[in-house]
Amino acid sequence: MSDDQNVNDAAGEYGADNLQHLSDRDHVRKRPGMYIGDTFSRGLHHLVYEVVDNSIDEAMAGHATKVGVVINPDGSVTVED
Hints:
By secondary structure, the chain is mainly α. The chain has one domain. It is built from four helices and two strands; from the N terminus they run ααααββ. Strands 1-2 form a two-stranded antiparallel ribbon. A hairpin with a 5-residue loop joins strand 1 (about 70) and strand 2. The longest helix has 20 residues, at about 40-60.
């Protein structure tokens, strides 16, 4: 069997049954690097920056009166607006 035929056979087997639908949340969890660059310090800092920036935008638009940011003892971050 030639290499060309192997490629055609493999291509013929690919279809909707081969696809898996992921919710938005599951897609981010499966491939976080697509959204924040990386999952190390730099990417996580960027993620916090984006959340804080969005909260500030909401406050500037009049949808919030204050923005709170807390770095929790476990290293996680809580942002409230």
